[in-house]
Amino acid sequence: MVSTEQSCWFIRKVICWRAVASIAWAVLLLPPITLVFVIISKFSFLHPIQTISECLYLLTSASGIFSFILLCGVILIVGFLHLEYYTVIPTIACSKIALLGQLLHPRHFINSLVHCFMGVIVAWCCAVTMGLRYETLGYPCTESDGHPQMCLNEYHLILLLAGAFVGFSHSLLGVIYNMNYVSFHTVQQYKYLRFKRCLPLVVKCSATQALYSVRNYIVMYLFLGKCPFFMNKMLVAQPIHLLTALNNFFQIDYSVHPLDSIAGLLDLSLLYHLWSSATFLLLTWNITLLLFRIFVTEVYSFPVQSSFTEDSHQCLPKVLTEKQPMILKFLALQDLALLSQHSPSRRCEVFSLSQPGGHPHNWNAISKECLSLLTDLTQRLVAYHDTVATNGRAKSLSSGKDLMSPRPVFLMKTPASVFARSVAGTPQSPLTSLFTPDLDSPFASPALRRLTAPVDQCSPWYGTVQSPHIMRRAPKLWSTSTGEVEFQKSNISFSTHRSSNIQVLSNEVLPEASSQALFADSQAHIWALEGLSYLVQASFSEDQFGVVQTTLPSILSCMLVLQEAVDRHFKLPHASSKPVRSTSSMGDSTYKTLRFALRATLKTAIYRITTTFGDHLNAVQISAEHRKRLQQFLEYKE
Amino acid sequence: KLHSRTESSSKAAFLDHSETLWMRMTCKHTNSPVIDAFAVPKWLSMSSGCILALLRWVSSFHGSLFPHLTLSSEDMIAEFSQVLNWSDCVVRAFAWHPHTDKFAVALLDDSIKIYNPKSATTPTLKHRLQRSVAAVQWKPLCASALAVACQNCLLVWHVDPCSLSTRPSSGCAQVLSHPGHSPVTSIAWSPSGSLLLSASPMDSTMMVWDVAAESCVPLQRVGGGGVSFLSWSPDGSHVLASTPSALFRVWETRMWTCERWPCVKGRCQSGCWSPDGSRLLFTVQGEMVIYALTFTDAPGQLSHSGPQAAAVVADLSETTFSTPDGDIVVGGEIQSLVWDPRGERLAVLLKGDPQAADRPAIIAVFKTRANPIFELLPCGFVQGEAGAEPRLMQFHPNFQHGALLTVCWSNGRITHVPFYFVSAGVPHFGLSGSPLLPHPQQRPADFVNQSLFTEFLS
């Protein structure tokens, strides 16, 4: 109960305001973007003056203002969706079927539908802005027998559908590329400078993404153009029919080119307008996303200790141990890493003793939390390695048995049951459930569940001697982060022939995805390592009471054990292969390289301690094996 | 047959293949169809000509603003490298490991050799992309990583210190490149070993690399036309970034904001930081003086209470000395500055005059003291064998008995010049360096002790 209250504190006071600020900036940036779009869409080389007068007229007209208000509304909704869907730990699909499961998850599906709808709204605004042949859905035409009639304006329709298509594909790509993942930067910069740096990139991404979306849309429209056309004819005809209060049917003018033909679609001006409105749509959304990321990841400085007891839950040692809003934990760890590097006065507070009693509570809480994070990662790596090793043996020994009796493992679950569970299993208070991904969901990254769950209970990673059979009971079904899919791959490959298609699909484990997923939350570990090592380094000259000395052996052995586990992990195939760098996408692919960053940070952290203490480390009580390892570091042979 | 066609028939052959309706139409009006087939409408050729002329004009304007942009990349490296006469220098770059007694040497043939007194093997690093090496630097707080600034990219080698292989494969090297960011002339690791900076005179952005993730953050500021030289202060709080024009910047590394420092005369040629990061010494091309900037405040507040102007701390204008071998003229422009890690010796590489025989390039060494006031006292000169001139120098990062200056000479020799002294101030605890413990066996004698030539106090 206390925990929810505190998370409310942080979400309410910080994250919400940051989100509001980012949305406000996005809305403020909308007029210039719209102006540029209007000029681009209306510009003609031959009549520049006329272009300007048309633009001015449009911007002051009632329809122009109305569509602008609509656009603001769309931005608000997009910003709200970002606030609701963002995550600091990416969900990594380990197989194709897991990805499909993510896409079809009701949560994402609703998101896609909303985006689709908003795409239509934006496209309508674009149509109004561009005017000319796009402006209205119907237009008056005369039938062959001379009757005045309303005909369907296919140009308007194609634009609206393009908006829906682009919005939908944007949201799908968002799931595939983890666009809701918010990464933290190693280089701190002011918000304005960061925005300025990223803006050209966002414009480029939006333009290219719009190009591909329009291409796909055109191809789709070419083949399926008739279906939406007739459907729309039926649906749309009615209101206009009523509106005009005429008994005429709403018809197409067959004298013009039908647009679902190649000739009709190869209209350069139409393509240009489709592309520019898709770019406009994606640009406004991506800028909202960019602003949200920049604002949310801004450094927040937590007080190390407070003189008032009612504020004590906002202090760094308390906040670090919080499980619930991941963003809070991440920001606290980031703050720890920064204060340990840059701020001597705050380091001094960390090393200080409590006033009555003289206990180093601050240091104890901080070091304990960091060490438990690192131990957790070590156990995870060891367990993963064990399962991979066991799998190799199990395959050779019991393949025959497996062939006969395919076990009811996680793959046998149908999506329906999975969904039912995830929908029913979120009885959280509405506020917290907004910002914390539902942990029961099989789509939530297990890494996340592991971070939030207490380490010592029901975690399959606790203890290194558990058999893989026990682990299979863990509630990770579709997007397992532990290579569970991989270690079962060989077992299942025998039964594939007789099983459903789902198994065939899920069999193709995406290379290195399991390794990525294993390190999905490693940003937290990186900060813990940095914070610990810098604090230990500073303690050499700043720690007056020797509070760090008591924990130095456990810190060293924890890091050395982790180092061993990481080294072992990188000997596995796929673990050390670099992912393909994708530059022209809004999705943040930082998580793909987190394991390399962790490896480098870990080594640097150990070297930082050994370089600072030098031969004094020989006096530290650690096991002989660790001492041998440490000697390697002291001699710079690692 | 194709090959039997004579020269005169090639015209017909061309027409056969490429005659289209449009060409035939143009042929009707002209006598020489081949040429006119490619004729474009007059307005198009006019306008494209205009655009080309405009582009040329803009680029020439840009080039006149920043004349270095017209140099070839080899010339550019030679111009901005800290090495004297880089292009014909046998040793093109040199780097001591920050913690152990090993060093890397980049040679004229674009290979890099790593020498370690404790190991019999000398690994030779060669890579397809390793051309025109301008700088090498070891990663601090790491045993194996070596960053190499090449013509088109940055390479980060991971040379396993325990490996017995003499030719590490190119798989051991990470390639870091960014479009437009070449040639790389200067690199700098952060003293904490987490970030790598790279700079190119062609690119006005400075790259901050996260090497493990192979991602970079470009830091761009308008003006200067590029970044030619980088130097990270030993405490990690500031970075000196000089540009090819008369301007340099001092970045603070917490939020990555910068201070602009316009120079009067030329570009900032070289610079070095005191061990505590509070004082920056730099030289300007075309001037014969050393300037100092003092940063007294905490990092992060650079722009509020930084120094207002640079102070001249030493004048190195030409002076004549009479030696037993005849008169010798010393002084002039400065090629590079290095400060020993304890902040007690400053070595200055003077360019000299390649035309005049009595004005060779020479290294002048100063004693420095930071407390109670900053002092710069002449100490002596370092001269090589006859005919050899110093090209490149670096202090050993943790020499126990004083300071050890390593000099690379034009004849390909590398010599170590030790300075034995008792440390005057309290030992510094740099953020990255190992704690310096007092050593009882120091010999209070300077190895090089020649006549003084100027005396300056700040």
TrEMBL record, chain A:
Q: Its principal location? A: nucleus
- Spell out the protein name for this chain: Nucleoporin NDC1
Function comment: Component of the nuclear pore complex (NPC), which plays a key role in de novo assembly and insertion of NPC in the nuclear envelope. Required for NPC and nuclear envelope assembly, possibly by forming a link between the nuclear envelope membrane and soluble nucleoporins, thereby anchoring the NPC in the membrane.
Source organism, top-level taxon: Eukaryota
Q: Tell me where in or outside the cell this protein is found.
A: Nucleus membrane; Nucleus, Nuclear pore complex
InterPro entries this protein is in?
Nucleoporin_prot_Ndc1/Nup
Q: Which GO terms describe its biological process?
A: mRNA transport; nuclear pore organization; protein transport
Q: Which family does it belong to?
A: Belongs to the NDC1 family.
The membrane topology term of the UniProt record is: Multi-pass membrane protein
TM stretches of this protein? 20-43, 55-79, 116-135, 155-177, 274-296
GO CC terms, sorted: nuclear membrane; nuclear pore transmembrane ring
Transport as a keyword? yes
* GO molecular function, a single term: protein-macromolecule adaptor activity
Any idea which UniProt keywords this protein has? Membrane, mRNA transport, Nuclear pore complex, Nucleus, Protein transport, Translocation, Transmembrane, Transmembrane helix, Transport
TrEMBL record, chain B:
The record's section on SMART domains has:
WD40
- WD repeats sit at 184-219
Q: Which Gene3D superfamilies match?
A: YVTN repeat-like/Quinoprotein amine dehydrogenase
> Which residue intervals define the domain Aladin seven-bladed propeller in the entry?
72-420
Q: Which GO terms describe its cellular component?
A: nuclear pore
Q: Give the InterPro entries listed for this entry.
A: Aladin (IPR045139), Beta-prop_Aladin (IPR057403), WD40/YVTN_repeat-like_dom_sf (IPR015943), WD40_repeat_CS (IPR019775), WD40_repeat_dom_sf (IPR036322), WD40_rpt (IPR001680)
| Keywords assigned by UniProt, alphabetized | Repeat, WD repeat
Q: Which Pfam families match?
A: Beta-prop_Aladin
Q: Which GO terms describe its biological process?
A: nucleocytoplasmic transport
Which domain of life does this protein belong to? Eukaryota
Can the keyword Repeat be found in this entry's annotation?
yes
| Protein's name in the database | Aladin seven-bladed propeller domain-containing protein
Its taxonomic path starts at: Eukaryota, Metazoa, Chordata, Craniata, Vertebrata
